[in-house]
């Protein structure tokens, strides 16, 4: 870990706890800052705050009082989940206080090579693939960010001859200043999180911020099949490494003669890849690029791609039961992810879907339901899903209380050879704290059959 004096004897306010807030608070305390933590949950119900209090860190719990800004803080570290519309955060910005997220702290102390990965979809799969490939090459690599351990916690331990692979959300990237990964990946850009961002433009700007501080010595791996994305990164000073599933490129990553190529070097035949779904080819191309730039051998890449069958909660094969195959795609919290999941299967499918109602319509899913023979719906969007299924001509649609009940109902509706797919197209927050919890309940119920 780099020795920095940026926060020595400085008053720093950490707003919002959970894993990232706790890790940031402890790191700042270690760096010599006078830390105050503010969290909405009352102290009596707040184990994280109680732990920090035991460490000698000041805590203010129960609300986000704007009056805290009168205490003369010099920096604010914001939990990514807290929106910029929060009155305390708005007030801080108005008076010119720097507001950062913990990934910025991670970068400031990091000594290792950092690979940063963002995009609307595919971040987790790409991050996991890169981690596995570098590890298979017997290099020391750590996975952090939205997947694995909090980035500023990992950054305290990695050394200059190691690699840190970080999955990054738009929420995190809105709060960076110096942050600069050696290799950056943007998997794709679609409309998402508009309940958090003020506009699509703000969302896209947050994503492309990953390359804001890159230099010609750094690399940006980017999806050239998206003209909008290519236009939005034209300011980048990084060396651009394009990838495409539809074009044969002079340089970069592409598919030719049913094989993946990197800079005109054949890496692996597509048919040898285990991970299902055409959408995953984008993730694989990006991961191969980051790995090749990290000196990983084709043998190591081959060993991963011929064995890796998916990330937990992302089109994850769970079990075959009486000739039915169950897949957990709980991480599909938006339309695009569910489209991709449905597009990956070409046999009769029973779709389990529904969740938080963000005001979206689901008509775009209609053309992807051609193989869906039945739907099991739940959550706030259940009625919208019923209407979607009816428009698509699906005759069997069952409404249940939640994902727990959906498994046995789907099993009853299914026949041998069917796919039973949990791909909600919605966030989980109407019934579950995270998509992981929702997916784990699904897995548990499948294994009980």
TrEMBL record:
<keyword id="KW-0132">Cell division</keyword>
<feature type="domain" description="Mur ligase C-terminal">
    <location>
        <begin position="313"/>
        <end position="426"/>
    </location>
</feature>
<dbReference type="GO" id="GO:0008764">
    <property type="term" value="F:UDP-N-acetylmuramoylalanine-D-glutamate ligase activity"/>
</dbReference>
<dbReference type="InterPro" id="IPR013221">
    <property type="entry name" value="Mur_ligase_cen"/>
</dbReference>
<keyword id="KW-0436">Ligase</keyword>
<dbReference type="InterPro" id="IPR036565">
    <property type="entry name" value="Mur-like_cat_sf"/>
</dbReference>
<dbReference type="Pfam" id="PF08245">
    <property type="entry name" value="Mur_ligase_M"/>
</dbReference>
<protein>
    <recommendedName>
        <fullName>UDP-N-acetylmuramoylalanine--D-glutamate ligase</fullName>
        <ecNumber>6.3.2.9</ecNumber>
    </recommendedName>
</protein>
<comment type="pathway">
    <text>Cell wall biogenesis; peptidoglycan biosynthesis.</text>
</comment>
<dbReference type="Pfam" id="PF21799">
    <property type="entry name" value="MurD-like_N"/>
</dbReference>
<dbReference type="InterPro" id="IPR004101">
    <property type="entry name" value="Mur_ligase_C"/>
</dbReference>
<keyword id="KW-0547">Nucleotide-binding</keyword>
<keyword id="KW-0573">Peptidoglycan synthesis</keyword>
<dbReference type="InterPro" id="IPR005762">
    <property type="entry name" value="MurD"/>
</dbReference>
<feature type="binding site">
    <location>
        <begin position="119"/>
        <end position="125"/>
    </location>
    <ligand>
        <name>ATP</name>
    </ligand>
</feature>
<keyword id="KW-0961">Cell wall biogenesis/degradation</keyword>
<comment type="similarity">
    <text>Belongs to the MurCDEF family.</text>
</comment>
<keyword id="KW-0133">Cell shape</keyword>
<keyword id="KW-0963">Cytoplasm</keyword>
<comment type="function">
    <text>Cell wall formation. Catalyzes the addition of glutamate to the nucleotide precursor UDP-N-acetylmuramoyl-L-alanine (UMA).</text>
</comment>
<dbReference type="InterPro" id="IPR036615">
    <property type="entry name" value="Mur_ligase_C_dom_sf"/>
</dbReference>
<dbReference type="Pfam" id="PF02875">
    <property type="entry name" value="Mur_ligase_C"/>
</dbReference>
<keyword id="KW-0067">ATP-binding</keyword>
<keyword id="KW-0131">Cell cycle</keyword>
<feature type="domain" description="Mur ligase central">
    <location>
        <begin position="117"/>
        <end position="290"/>
    </location>
</feature>
